[in-house]
Design goal:
four-stranded mixed beta sheet; alpha+beta; 378 residues
């Protein structure tokens, strides 16, 4: 999703660059209106460098930051919404990409249905976790199934170019599972208010999902995250790219971390045995192997359920979305206002069918003539 938005941002720059109306005017390399030249650079360089931009572009209540790329992204959202609205009015063929995009967009706009259903769309997933997570092995299998359906677990995998052999792609395994992102939020005393807010959020979503023991389930899920936060690599450690390149075969991975049951995990994701898998944070996985082996399966179960509910908050009823917004956006990021429903609805087809949406976008806003011109410029 992030890559797609960035691509659209670049496309917007290209469109602007290719606009014939702009060809006769010179654009300065540095826009001095973005500076605050009344501030001495040595006293406050940030204010000097961005004061003009901040004055001319006041922070909108639905944003936690608003820079040049946010402007491009917002303009792209408006353009994409026009595309989607245009599709809604067209007669699209059943099974076509256009129909899929339209259906997903309309589902996101249907607040009446979403608010009526509440947590009902999650019930079968939550029930399966409730009955089937009984040990570390079943936890590995259900973690993979949750990942396949869009929810996160204690680790994740992805395919990417091999950093030591760019002609080939390999599988990478990396740490995951901290909903607040940075381990410091869990471990440093100064972030206790955030931890309290997160605990309240977990209890709120379990309550909305209909669990009478919501407080206990929230506490269990929180305990699992606190446990993995300790061995989780710090932001400084994550900058060391070489330290994150640790090749394993599938059999070596299974043998090294027996409680994580990578064989079960890969089978559930339909990933065959690999000759080369890159483990990004080996010390984390060593600790995680012990944590999973020693943790009550009930806690692991409640952790997975919390992950499923939390990740779904933006796609179900307004109560869930508000609970998520109040903590992650308002308390953590300082955002004052929820995004309008059309922006939220648009992110579903954009996220699931990004390549198809991108093709539609380019067809309308980046014609072949502009592409040829940009190639000549490059």
């Amino acid at each position: 999703m992030k890559r797609f938005i960035f691509s659209l941002a670049v496309a917007s720059i290209c469109v602007a660059a290719c606009n014939p109306a702009k060809e006769t005017s010179r654009v300065p390399a540095l826009d001095y209106s973005n500076l605050d030249t009344l501030t001495a650079p040595g006293a406050d360089f940030y204010k000097y460098a961005t004061g003009g931009w901040q004055k001319n572009n006041p922070l909108k209540p639905e944003f936690s930051r608003y820079g040049a790329f946010d402007v491009l992204a917002e303009n792209n959202e408006i353009r994409l919404n026009d595309l989607f609205k245009g599709l809604v009015s067209l007669k699209t063929e059943a099974g076509s990409v256009e129909r899929k995009i339209t259906d997903l967009y309309k589902m996101g706009l249907d607040s009446t249905r979403l608010n009526t259903e509440g947590a009902a769309p999650l019930e079968k997933y939550l029930a399966k976790i409730e009955t089937e997570v009984v040990d570390a092995r079943s936890f590995a299998r259900l973690s993979a199934e949750c990942e396949r359906n869009g929810a996160g677990g204690l680790f994740g995998c992805y395919a990417e170019a091999d950093l030591a052999d760019s002609d080939n792609e390999v599988l990478y395994i990396g740490e995951s599972g901290l909903s607040m992102g940075n381990r410091d939020y869990y471990l440093l005393e100064q972030h206790e208010a955030l931890r309290q807010g997160y605990r309240e959020f977990l209890e709120k979503i379990f309550t909305l999902a209909g669990y009478e023991d919501a407080a206990q389930r929230a506490a269990d899920a929180y305990d699992v995250e606190m446990a993995i936060a300790v061995p989780f690599w710090s932001m400084v450690q994550q900058r060391d790219v070489e330290a994150q390149y640790n090749p394993f075969t599938t059999s070596q991975l299974v043998a090294a971390y027996p409680n994580l049951h990578f064989d079960v995990y890969f089978k559930a994701l339909s990933i065959p045995a690999q000759e080369k898998i890159i483990v990004e944070q080996p010390s984390y996985f060593e600790a995680l192997d012990k944590i999973v082996g020693q943790t009550d399966p009930v806690k692991l179960r409640h952790y997975l359920q919390a992950s499923v509910i939390s990740d779904a908050c933006g796609c179900i009823s307004d109560e869930f979305y508000t609970a998520s917004f109040d903590f992650f956006s308002r308390q953590m990021a300082g955002v004052k206002e929820q995004k309008p429903r059309w922006k939220r609805a648009m992110r579903v087809p954009n996220g699931l069918l990004g390549e198809a949406v991108g093709e539609m976008y380019v067809k309308k806003y980046f014609p072949e003539a502009d592409k040829e011109k940009m190639l000549r410029i490059v």
